């Protein structure tokens, strides 16, 4: 079966933050003493991009970039002129689609509000705020450096600067949180009228401060009640759920994350960044990730040592990797996408699909791969059925 190259995105990792949060397992590094070499890092991001384009050859070169995502860490620690320097350099190397979505993550406690218009001028047309909660006590427990009032002020400042496409990140099942508390957070988010909300459960990830010293979290039943109640309130307010933790106003779904979930391609640039690239000529799907620590990444200066790992995804792994993403989407995906994006015949997953449908986890809709409401609740089990 032919492998067809899907849309191509660009992920850019900015690894520094003011302070590492106790629940965070991302590749982020708190500021200590001397400020990070921001300008040097941007130059090395472009060297990294050059090296990837050289290594991947025709599989990456000349393809339109449909979305860019600056993640972290806290990308808003980088001044607008540095973000512009990277974007200008990236545009010189790759064509950007006319409607390219360019997102920058920001935390309310780290942005100088005067910078928002500066980011807008660089071409950044979407901001994602790491709010997490509008309850000052919960923010303190989460180790956040902003208050609820500062969060609201930052969002309004971005809107005043001209931003019409904003995401707010919210968590639920926080330490000692009640159902009313979770709903109160959602209400305050809705009042700010963002175009998109990411609403996800706090989990204890390995190698974090919370994992070593767990706070008192709501049990699974209470967490599920929060999810259902908040989902209903968001729907009432016009935010349609399109992924297990993503809600958007009509026409405002996140193009970058949709490309991930539809098993699209993406170049991963920066310390610890992950990328995935399809090569129709070779009939293969390749994953590459970069060295995690910023110092080691920068010392590599675009050389081979910047690569932390690189492998071709085996045919026995592709069904699980594909479903790990696609089944998160509430609308599902066309069944033909499996073959187009893995190169495998539909018969390869026929038995697993039949088993998932018998359990009530997958819809019987012809030509569509879509989880049922039960499948969304037991999503990890549904996905695990595709492990070889």
Shape: globular
Which strand order do you get reading across the main beta sheet? 9-10-8-7-6-5-4-1-11
> What structural category arises from helix and sheet content?
alpha/beta
The proportion of residues forming helix, as a percent range, comes to: 25-40%
CATH architecture call of the largest domain: Alpha-Beta Barrel
Task: Assess the beta-strand content as a share of residues.
Answer: 15-25%
CATH superfamily of the largest domain: Aldolase class I
Our Rg estimate from Cα atoms comes to 21 Å
Q: What features would you describe in this structure?
A:
Helices cover 37% and strands 22% of the residues. It contains 15 helices and 16 strands. The strands form four sheets. Strands 9-10-8-7-6-5-4-1-11 form a nine-stranded mixed sheet, sandwiched between helices. It has a three-stranded antiparallel sheet with strand order 12-13-14, with no helix packed on it. Helix 2 (80-93) links the parallel strand 4 (65-72) and strand 5. Helix 1 (38-56) runs parallel beside helix 2, helix 2 (80-93) packs parallel to helix 3 (116-122) and helix 6 packs parallel to helix 8 (220-236). The longest helix has 19 residues, at 38-56. The two termini are 20 Å apart. The relative contact order is 0.13. The mean pLDDT is 95.
